[in-house]
Amino acid sequence: MDEFLYDVKIPKDRVAVLIGKKGEVKKIIEIETKTKIEVDSKEGDVFLKGEDALGLYTAREIVMAVGRGFHPHIALTLLKGDYLYESLDLTDYAGKSKDHMERIKGRIIGREGKSRKLIEELSEASLAVYGKTVSIIGPAESVTIARSAIEMLLRGSTHAAMYTMLERQRRELKGHKLFESFSPRPDEEKR
Fold first, then answer.
1. Domain residue spans of the chain
2. CA distances (Å), 156 to each of 94, 96, 136, 189, in order?
3. What pLDDT score was predicted for residue 184?
4. Closest of 123, 126, 124, 129 to residue 104, by C-alpha
């Protein structure tokens, strides 16, 4: 069988988090994704190998999520088939200005983390603001909603407008899920 390879670079200060106490996090990722992970702690290079392309892709996503600031328990939710990881490069919105970067990160996080918490709660996705990125993990619909909220803030919308959009999206999503749960199964329609 063919062996597939990925090389991922993560920040050096996230290497210990990826490895975990006594290598526990690394072992869990390897077992759950059927991959082999080698870490160069000095450089932050992570080498992933495996014969299962989907498992290897999932391992790469988990490693990148940990590298972008997620706690390993949240990153491991990517093992669920319907969960996605997405990362937005804030330099696309802030340019090279350090002051502007700090300002837009502050808008996403909010005073005492309020904005971030509300985005997570209303979108049902998890956020990590780390370095020059903001990353999202959650079910596909939730990631889309959270990304829309973040992009609104990055483009200068008010927090109030963003919260209104999130609440509307949440109602629509809940209504859709509620409708699906009450929809008759195909074998029940003829009764």
1. 4-79, 83-182
2. 11, 18, 20, 48
3. 55
4. 129
Sequence-distant (≥ 6) Cβ neighbours of residue 165 within 8 angstroms: 148, 149, 152
pLDDT interval class at 186 (50, 70, 90) = low
Q: Indicate the CATH number for domain 83-182.
A: 3.30.1370.10
Q: Name the CA dihedral angle for 167, 168, 171, 177, rounded to a multiple of 10 degrees.
A: -120
CATH number assigned to the domain covering 4-79 = 3.30.1370.10
Residue 185 or residue 58, greater confidence: 58
* DSSP-assigned states of every residue in the chain: ---EEEEEE--GGGHHHHH-GGGHHHHHHHHHHTEEEEEETTTTEEEEEES-HHHHHHHHHHHHHHHTT--HHHHGGGGSTTEEEEEEETHHHHTT-HHHHHHHHHHHH-GGGHHHHHHHHHHT-EEEEETTEEEEEEEHHHHHHHHHHHHHHHTT--HHHHHHHHHHHHHHHHHHHHHHHHSPPTTTTT-
- Distance CA(14)–CA(65), nearest Å, equals 10
- Residue length of the chain: 191
